[in-house]
Specification:
Layout (H helix, E strand, L loop, with lengths): L4 E8 L2 E8 L18 H5 L12 E5 L2 E5 L3 E6 L2 E4 L16 H25 L14 H14 L18 E3 L5 E3 L1 H10 L1 H9 L4 H13 L4 H60 L4 H8 L1
Antiparallel strand pairs: 1-2, 3-4, 5-6, 7-8
Helix pairs in contact: 3-6
Length: 297
Amino acid sequence: NNFGVNANIINGDSGTILVLDSNITGVANQLSVTNDNASLDSISTSLIIPTGGNATDAQISINGQTITNDSNTFTTAIEDVTINAVKVTTSSIDLTVSTDTNSVSTAISDFVDAFNNLSKIISELGSSDPASPGILSGDATLRILDRQIRRITTATVNGLTGNVNSLAEIGISTNQDGTLSLDSSKLNQQLTDNLDNIEQIFTASNGIASSLSTLVDQYTNSTGILTSRTSSLNEQLSRIDDDRIQLSERLDQLETRLRAQFGAMDALVAQLKSTGNFLTQQLANLPGFSRNSNSGN
């Protein structure tokens, strides 16, 4: 059950042997076998270490300075640099340490693409085209969000040394529709000349990425603007549903009342007709009714 040790039984021509392998390298992790049972003495006293099987540390020399490590991966020899020793050699190797500007360029390009996707979504939602208005056309919250985003991407990041302190200075320009365009040649040149400033443009406390992250949080956290707006819309929908139910109930009641009134009026008309016929018959039996009626003709 010892961590880092594999035990295997091998049945060979010379008999059965127990093989113990350590998964952890380095002198400090040398494998040893001890026991407190006499019947197991043959294991601890007959232990055979094959040629080249002794635990050793990896060793490299940098500018005449020897560095040892319990594995072939050196992470502390040079600050922020990882060295992997892959083979034994006495020959010198020139080690060049440089910044991977390609990954930085790719990250910035991905940022521009993601920003443009967001900008297009906002534009579609807020479109005021009469033929095809957006779902949030005229919505004040969307307009304010759009303005705030544009303000951040066109702002100058204060506190930086030199003139490279905005997206425009590193090859990112703003189009009329709010999307961004990237001049890769200008960006690559600035990555060579002003890498530190480019990092600060995005990651400083008042930088582009930090400011956008803060803005997004203001809109999307549990008490954010969009969260509150969504809750308000849900409440309005709930009230509309309640009003629809109440209106339906009132319409049902009105229909019932009108039907009852119609039935009553219909019965009244029938009664009036019946009464009229009765009166006509009674008048016909009165003396002089026929004469007066004839004289009228």
